[in-house]
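Example 4.3 (complexes with small molecules)
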Amino acid sequence: MHPDIERVLLAREEIQERVRLLGTQISADYKGKEILAVGVLKGSVVFLADLLRVLTVPVEIDFIAVSSYGKASASSGVVRILKDLDRSITGRDVLLVEDIVDTGLTLNYLKEHLLSQQPAGLRVCALLDKPSRRRVPVEIDYLGFSIPDEFVVGYGLDYAGRYRNLPDICVLRREVYEGGR
Ligand code: PRP
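Answer. The structure with PRP bound is encoded below.
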């Protein structure tokens, strides 16, 4: 195991099984439709890549990148769009794909931003949820795992840009991030 990791919270096999089930459920719900999956950069890329490959309905992808000010002290709710969608989502069935929902502020903002462009439908798929950290209510249509408030990295999730490549979702050792959060 990586020396900065305290323990594995969700092992790769458990993640794969859950992603497979999410894919089955989403494919059934969208039968006869075409999905536009919108990944929120950068954390969602690993999850999205796996989810895509278990979907059996037609799917296109696009990406949006956001930056939340004041994240270091706790999300302020002010979200800045760093990269918007490449193509119009008007009339499309959009599935917003997130790696983690924490305070809910990013998702809340993104939902409003996307809804203003009048998609045919908008649903949210998130791999992880930390409900104890929620500041604004948000609805997650497809959820992988609800987790406790621990500092997790891996499977796309980072600390200071690192650890996204770890195949499992892991709890980071406290001494690695103390003082830097
Ligand atoms: C994470 C995650 C969500 C957001 C959730 O992104 O991907 O977008 O934070 O937090 P919230 O519910 O408190 O708003 P992050 O800012 O870490 O960027 P990254 O995906 O590039 O790692």
